[in-house]
Design goal:
The protein has four helices and four strands. The protein has about 140 residues and is of the alpha/beta class.
């Protein structure tokens, strides 16, 4: 599991950059099939500025990863530090708020890429921020 940390948040992970990292990993006899996280641009998190452009970049990065044989992208929900949802105010029928990936999931499904939640790490509040996925009951 690794990521392309040098690429700025919101920029497209190109096939060339993905393949370059994959070649380094495979040269050591390993396989790269899981991405730790594609960093989310702040404008997606706040739905301001050019957030639709950054969502399109995220979608293209997913397509490019799948084209290079990467089949899983982990994501986490840690606010401020790294979290994502495409609708910050999505409300369930019972009035509770939920994560919504309506602009990401269809692309991942189309290219056969799995999305996997990354639990809060560490499983306790950091900087006064809430934990969302810390124990198995949080996944229910």
């Amino acid at each position: 599991m690794t990521a392309l940390h040098p690429i700025p948040n919101g920029e497209i992970w190109t096939v060339e950059e993905i393949q370059k990292r994959k070649d380094i990993i495979e040269a050591k006899g390993l396989t790269w099939s899981v991405v730790e996280s594609i960093p989310i641009h702040e404008e997606i998190k706040t739905q301001t500025g050019n957030y639709q452009q950054y969502i399109a970049h995220y979608q293209q990065s997913i397509r490019n990863l799948a084209a290079c044989g990467i089949d899983t992208v982990c994501y986490n929900f840690m606010p401020v530090l790294d979290w994502t949802r495409t609708d910050l105010e999505y409300e369930l029928p019972d009035g509770s708020k939920a994560l919504r990936f309506d602009q990401i999931v269809p692309i991942a499904e189309k290219v056969g890429l799995n999305l996997a939640v990354h639990p809060d790490d560490p499983p306790r509040p950091i900087l006064g921020l809430p934990c969302i996925v810390s124990i198995i009951e949080d996944m229910q």
